[in-house]
Amino acid sequence: MEVNSTEYWELRHARDDWPRWSSWAMEIAMKNIPTNARVMIVGCGQGMEAIKLLNHRPDIKSVYAFDIAKSAIRKAHKNCTQLTDIKDKDKLWLCVNDLFTLNTENYSRPFDYCISIQNLEHWKPETHIEALRRMLRPLKEGGKLFITGVGKSWDLDENNFGPLVCDGEEKQYSNDLHYNNWSEQELYDLLVRLDVECVTFYRKRGSDRVIAEATK
Question: For the residues of 192-216, what is the DSSP string, one character each?
């Protein structure tokens, strides 16, 4: 079984309940998202970012969140019980989808903001430009892409989720899952190839996370 394949993430999400590591990144995103925005979340996992967003930003008009793993979306639907206002379920559209096959050509109502947290490092380098293009495409003019990557010195030995047995072999969530770790310059160089208007980076002392917000 190939690491980072759909099958791999089906098994990971079926086995593990993940709160995700994105609290600081989401704090930034929630402050930056405009009022009454339509938001897309790529690789939403078990839905915690979407739920946190709706709980803290009741003005959000809608959230479209998707993941390649059916097991993740099943858990995301169960996690919706954590919504402060159960009526917010009507704002949240959770579905199974793949960014690389998703039709992002024609949206009658483009998005104001797209969030992608800890996805980029799991995609093969030759797909990065296409992935970024596909996330920018459904945004309206002036819309923003919020994206994170892991930095050059990120060490998952202290942040692993424990072993996963695949075909009789025990595999650890480790740096083997990361095709790339990023510097700000490397991520900037990718984004400017797509003619974005501007790129803003966010930093936190002691964190090796690379966080960027690009304006279409």
Answer: HTTT-SEEEEE--TT--EEEEEEE-
Q: What contacts 176, CB < 8 A, 6 or more positions away?
A: 3
CA separation (Å) from 64 to 44, 60, 95, 97, 133? 9, 11, 8, 11, 18
| Region 11-36 average pLDDT | 86
What CA–CA distance (Å, rounded) separates 61 from 154?
A: 35
Cα(47)–Cα(117) distance, integer angstroms:
12
Task: Identify the pLDDT of residue 179.
Answer: 78
pLDDT digits (tens, 9 = 90+) for 114-154: 999 989 988 999 999 999 999 999 999 999 999 998 766 54
Provide long-range contacts, Cβ within 8 A and 24+ apart, for 168-172: 171/3
* CATH superfamily name and code, 6-215: Vaccinia Virus protein VP39 (3.40.50.150)
Task: Give this prediction's pTM.
Answer: 0.86
Distance in angstroms (rounded) separating the CA atoms of residues 210 and 22: 12
Domain regions of the chain by residue span: 6-215
How many helices and strands, by DSSP H and E, does the chain display? 6, 9
Q: Which DSSP letter does residue 34 get?
A: P
